[in-house]
Design goal:
- By secondary structure, this protein is an alpha+beta fold.
- It has a domain at 93-197: Head domain of nucleotide exchange factor GrpE (Nucleotide Exchange Factor Grpe, Chain A, domain 2, Roll).
- The protein is 64% helix and 16% strand.
- The strands form 2 sheets. It has a 3-stranded antiparallel beta sheet with strand order 1-4-5. A 3-stranded mixed beta sheet has the order 2-6-3, with no helix packed on it.
- α3 (93-112) runs antiparallel to α4.
């Protein structure tokens, strides 16, 4: 029994010695690989130098491109903000255009009522109040009326329907407004239709 235990104790020590010998003693093949590795190291050094040079070039290019990219991002952000601002300011443009015929109809109703007629006097006052309420409501959303009677003709805001000879009027002056124009936040929704004095 004691002999068997002694053998078991000796066996792991002997195996450990064999493993150490295997690791420590290099074979001929290992020496060749090491010799080959020395040649590969030189090639790897060359590749490393080339890679480092390429990295330097790329870093220089990146340094040149970075300010341009930042400027481009700022421009894109500015354009997006302007688009959002325009969309907010002019979102009611189509709606305003749909309301303008209603305003025109109310104005024509007021013009058709005779001031001397007592029967239509109350009706005229009611229509005037309705028109005032509508225009005040539109004014809260920056809708402005273009009524250029007596002003110089402005092709950006006025549409000339005809030119007439008016001796007392200055040339290119609006002498009659056939239909008022409207602006939304300074942008023309509809030009004023006018008659202009000839030069």
């Amino acid at each position: 029994m004691a002999d068997e235990q002694q053998k078991q104790t000796e066996t792991p020590a002997a195996e450990q010695q064999n493993v150490d010998q295997t690791v420590v003693e290099p074979s001929a093949e290992d020496v060749e690989v090491a010799a080959d590795g020395a040649v590969d190291v030189e090639a790897l050094k060359e590749q490393l130098a080339l890679a480092e040079a390429e990295i330097d070039d790329l870093q220089k290019q990146l340094a040149e491109l970075q300010p341009r990219a930042q400027a481009e991002i700022q421009n894109m952000r500015r354009r997006a903000e302007q688009d959002v601002e325009k969309a907010r300011k002019f979102a009611l443009e189509k709606f305003t255009g749909e309301l303008l015929p209603v305003v025109d109809s109310l104005e024509r109703a007021i013009e058709s009522c005779q001031a001397e007629d007592e029967a239509t006097k109350a009706l005229k006052e009611g229509v005037e109040m309705t028109l005032k309420l509508l225009l005040d409501g539109m004014g809260k959303f920056n809708v402005e009326t273009v009524d250029p009677q007596g002003q110089a003709f402005n092709p950006e805001h006025h549409q000339a329907m005809s030119m007439v000879e008016v001796p007392d009027a200055e040339p290119n002056t609006v002498v009659a407004v056939m239909q008022k124009g409207y602006l939304l936040n300074g942008r023309l929704v509809r030009p004023a239709m006018v008659m202009v004095a000839k030069g």
